[in-house]
Amino acid sequence: MVGGGLTSFIGPVHRKAAGIDGEIELVCGAFSIIPGESKATGEALYLDPSRVYETYPEMFEAEKKMPPEKRIDFVSVVTPNHVHYGPSKMALESGFHVIVEKPISFNLDEAKSLQKLVAKTGLVLGLTHTYTGYPLVKEAKAMVAAGKFGKIRKVYVEYPQGWLSTLLEGTGNMQASWRTDPKQSGMGGAIGDIGTHAANLAEYIIGSEITEICALLNTVVKGRLLDDDSSMLLKFANGATGVLLATQVAAGEENNLNIRVYGEKGGLEWKQEDPNTMILKWLGRPKEIIRAGQAYLTDDAKRFTRTPAGHPEGYLEAFANIYREFTKAVRDHKPGKKFNLAKYDIPGVDDGVRGMTFVQTAVKSSGSTRKWTKLK
Ligand code: NAD
What we know:
Layout: E1 2-3, H1 10-19, H2 37-44, H3 56-64, E2 74-78, H4 85-93, E3 97-100, H5 108-121, E4 125-127, H6 135-145, E5 152-160, H7 174-179, H8 182-185, H9 190-206, E6 210-218, E7 229-236, E8 241-247, E9 258-263, E10 266-271, E11 277-282, E12 285-291, H10 299-302, H11 315-332, H12 349-366, E13 373-374
Parallel strand pairs: 1-2, 2-3, 3-4, 5-8
Antiparallel strand pairs: 5-9, 6-7, 6-13, 7-8, 9-10, 10-11, 11-12
The structure holds nicotinamide-adenine-dinucleotide (NAD).
């Protein structure tokens, strides 16, 4: 693991999620940029001290030299955005598979460079767009693909959070500090941090890509250097249109990612804060409520369900679903043979490039007087 020191946010979530199925063992890491924290993290996790490194270049150098049965199979990159490209590139060049946090990189050039490197090395790169891991999101995707709602016409995706409603970065909060710093986060603030999740979720469920956007990015909190609020109109390749709202200044909101999708015959509604319930809406007949874990769901949803109906599954299991699919890809990978990640239900480098294209286009659109800006 690169990043994920004791005081970090998402690294510990990855460790828990990766551990759920018992297929993955954490053996080494360069866990932190904070002096002494990598060592302390290794100690807390009972790792072999000789495999706890101060920097990730040291880690890859040392791991590369180990006998194949001992060295790492893959690396999880869970650092701030500006430290995604370096370790991911070094891992691929050292022959290791990669699972990396979103957004895939600091800018679009880095994302494209990783795309080339994945093609060249034939290694597996997974991207943790967590929300695609939920069983009912799988169900939503399967229902849309099966034509249950007819042709899709409308998508509303919202991602309101409230935790950046004040100048939290001014208090030294680590997570707020790098997210609002253009040198660490990239050209997007909220749009990169959570807008990319919302765009990815919409594209994943309806199976069609966003082609054009009309965006308004705001910086609401005085003194902040990047956007903390965004609203945009969307056009999709399949002819649907949509609305995407991503904000971190909706005071009082926690992590209220939610999506509504409507076709000719009906629609669906799913909320991340109540992830085991999905509402189906039908033209001319009553609404239905479907629940995770039930026998009536498609195999796509059942395959990603671990607990019986009524026993809540959530964030960690959704994350674990990404790890399980990634692990399957890594196990199936044959060195020297061309590898196709599309056979696995996990976001990859192409989604990463799309995410960075989305961020760049949103910033461009917001600064432009043109109504529509194409995602190129
Ligand atoms: P954080 O600030 O809590 O943790 C970052 C960690 O990386 C820290 O331990 C820090 O010391 C370490 N680090 C920084 N530079 C390093 C370096 N050069 N070498 C080794 N370690 C280094 O950040 P976070 O909130 O955990 O976010 C990390 C990444 O995860 C971000 O890209 C963020 O967008 C993403 N994220 C994704 C989700 C999701 O739902 N998929 C949720 C939260 C965060």
